[in-house]
Amino acid sequence: MHPRRPDGFDGFGYGGVGRDELGPGSRPSGSGSELGSWVTSPPDIPGSRNLHWGEKTPPYGAGTPPGGAGPNEEANLGAGGPRAEQLNRFAGFGIGLASLFTENVLAHPCIVLRRQCQVNYHARNYHLTPFTVVNIMYCINKTQGPRALWKGMGSSFIVQGITLGTEGIISEFTPLPRELSHKWNLKQIGGHLLLKGLTHVIAMPFYSASLIETVQSEIIRDNPGILDCVKEGIGRVVGLGVPHSKRLLPLMVLTFPTALHGVLHYVISSIVRKLVMFFLKRDNSHSLPSESSTSVQSMLDAYFPELIASFAASLCADVMLYPLETVLHRLHIQGTRTIIDNTDLGYEVLPINTQYEGMKDCINTIKREEGMQGFYKGFGAVIVQYTLHMAVLQLTKIIYSTLLQNVS
């Protein structure tokens, strides 16, 4: 079967669920699904099956004189043949794995500090720049150890799994489309966005539990179990087994802001992804690869546009919706008796004792008491997160480009 080119998983007309859909502060979208797609079905790469455009590669060893290398052997080792096919799979797996590791593991300390700053209404230092963020992360690591920066990572994966499973089940038993065809209409778009909103609403109590694990100070909490996120999420729904105060907001109050953030994040990231892919494909189509550079450059061009588009889509959505995310996190954490780290000092702890009545009251209170910059507390962590992600992508591209050139 001829291999297919992997498509994006977040935009209109694409299937699957990306990282942008998994809740506020999640990692850039689609990497895990793309990774599995690349490993099983590497994209069409000019030169991997053809020596020239439209010219089929002769079979390996065809025309080889006895006792010597034939004229096609070098071509099959470089631009085509089984060895090139293995290089394609290796490159796709490695590039996808590097992006997946960066989004879900390496960037997690930035997400931890970002969320702690967002819910810390006491903070005098807003950490709007990456310089103060790096300093406070160093202080927390020094006083509590590295574990304090990776707390809640397991529950984040659980929430992602719940979200993916929920969306699949709803689309299977309802007429709501999980993906849009190229001939979409307004009714299909409405059903598709309704599916995304319902998915976020159902995953909402588990996201709240994951958020608490992420911001809770390591100094005062016990070692959480792997499935504590699920247990506490179910307890939040039925109202049992979860310590809370009278200030805890009902899930009905959290439904609208949670669905709003999730749907807007999906729409923005989908549009940006489409635009970036359009411009990247247009630029690539203007420059036809030469015979000498086909096998290396086209292999990189096949994988990296998807990663760059996912990176840009997630970055734009996170930046544009950061104030709404700050409000959403404060509403989710209120009344849960959560104690966070002091983000001004890097040591000591602070209780969260807000008394917001809802989304509108939270917005007005932040604007009145903390100013407009209060909506962007911890924004420096976003800069660090995406700078780190871009650096890993560029480093991976350089490494694979060098390896492929040497092998070719």
Automatic annotation (TrEMBL):
Bilayer topology term: Multi-pass membrane protein
Q: Which Pfam families match?
A: Mito_carr
Q: Supply one GO BP term.
A: phospholipid homeostasis
Q: Which SUPFAM superfamilies match?
A: Mitochondrial carrier
- Could you list this entry's UniProt keywords, alphabetically sorted: Membrane, Mitochondrion, Mitochondrion outer membrane, Repeat, Transmembrane, Transmembrane helix, Transport
Start-end of Low complexity biased regions? 23-37
Q: What is its main location?
A: mitochondrion
Can you list the GO cellular component terms from the UniProt entry? mitochondrial outer membrane
Q: Name where the Solcar repeats lie.
A: 301-403
Q: Which InterPro entries match?
A: MCP_dom_sf, MCP_transmembrane, SLC25A46
Region described as Disordered: 1-81
The record's subcellular location field reads: Mitochondrion outer membrane
Q: Which GO terms describe its molecular function?
A: protein-containing complex binding
Which family is this protein grouped under?
Belongs to the mitochondrial carrier (TC 2.A.29) family.
The entry's protein name is Solute carrier family 25 member 46
Organism listed in the record: Taeniopygia guttata
